[in-house]
Design goal:
The chain is an alpha/beta fold and about 280 residues long. The protein has one domain: Luciferase-like domain (TIM Barrel, Alpha-Beta Barrel). Helix content is about 40%, strand content about 15%. The strands form 2 sheets. An 8-stranded parallel beta sheet has the order 8-7-4-3-2-1-10-9. Helix 1 crosses helix 3. The longest helix is centred in the middle third of the chain and has 17 residues. The model has no long low-confidence stretch (mean pLDDT about 95).
Length: about 280
């Protein structure tokens, strides 16, 4: 089982370049960066992690720029959005950003995506909360068209553009792996329909082992090869027994979420997590 690291990197935390180098030096497989463009002060939408939204949600850096900084200080680790809010992004710009970072990193990008939970944040971008998943699918379909065609066009309900040229194309063919977030069963269904993997949050109300068994059954019933839609778990407990259980259940990856922290504290925590993961061998 592969082990990744995730952190909300801010202007007061360890820098993304330093974090990437430290993650790679300790043998982790990947580095994941989340996304929020802003947090509306109204705060009407409930956060699934608890009653109080942590400050780093409104302070986090832009993920593609952060991951590019990490790409410049690393050679091997995968660089991933976890997750990118494509419902708040122009699909043509985002397709170019994805292809550019895949090119600059030598084909190391993973495109983690999701529909998000903050209706007010989406509204600032002109996105209707009720139709966000339909919008997300169209934007991903449009990006796939751009990545895989010299002359690309797309005509949908929400996304529509005439034949166009757009380079670079991703290094990974046909495009970087697309992992969908979201809870069971709806997130799982979307991953099976148009993704290359599913990555639910590990510690929120759903047992990852139980939903993993049900997910594999759904994949089989869909007719897709289970190997083509692996399951990763985001934010499992930092406990050896939990990681062993996920590994033994056939999970493809566990992404360990770290608290936002300045350099020294972040490096200390990475050392602790490296020691924890060493116990899996």
């Amino acid at each position: 089982m592969k082990i990744g690291i995730s952190m909300f990197v801010t202007d007061t935390s360890i820098s993304p370049g330093e974090l990437g180098a430290a993650v790679e030096a300790r043998g982790f497989e990947s580095l994941w960066m989340p996304e929020h463009t802003h947090i509306p002060v109204s705060r009407k939408s409930p956060w699934g992690g608890g009653p109080e939204l942590p400050d780093h949600y409104k302070q986090t850096l832009e993920p593609f720029m952060s991951l590019t900084a990490a790409a410049m200080t690393t050679k091997h680790i995968k660089l991933a959005t976890g997750i990118c809010l494509v419902v708040e992004r122009d699909p043509i710009h985002t397709a170019k950003q994805v292809a550019s970072i895949d090119y600059l990193s030598g084909g190391r990008f993973i495109f983690g995506i999701g529909g998000g939970w903050n209706a007010e944040e989406m509204a600032s971008h002109g996105t209707d909360f009720k139709t966000r998943f339909e919008l997300m699918r169209e934007r991903i379909e449009a990006m796939k068209a751009i990545w895989t065609n010299d002359v690309a066009e797309y005509h949908g309900k929400f996304v529509d553009f005439e034949p166009m040229w757009c380079w670079p194309k991703p290094v990974q063919k046909p495009y970087p792996p697309i992992l969908l977030g979201g809870a069971f069963p709806y997130g799982a269904r979307r991953a099976i329909e148009y993704g290359d993997g599913w990555m639910p949050i590990g510690g929120r109300d759903q047992d990852p082992l139980e939903i993993g068994r049900r997910f594999r059954q759904m994949v089989a019933e869909s007719g897709r090869d289970p190997a083509s839609v692996p399951m990763s778990v985001y934010g499992p407990r930092h406990e050896l027994d939990q990681l062993r259980a996920l590994r033994d259940a056939g999970m493809d990856r566990a992404v360990l979420a770290m608290a936002t922290a300045p350099r020294d504290a972040a490096l200390k925590k990475l050392d602790e997590l490296a020691d924890l993961v060493a116990g899996l061998d």
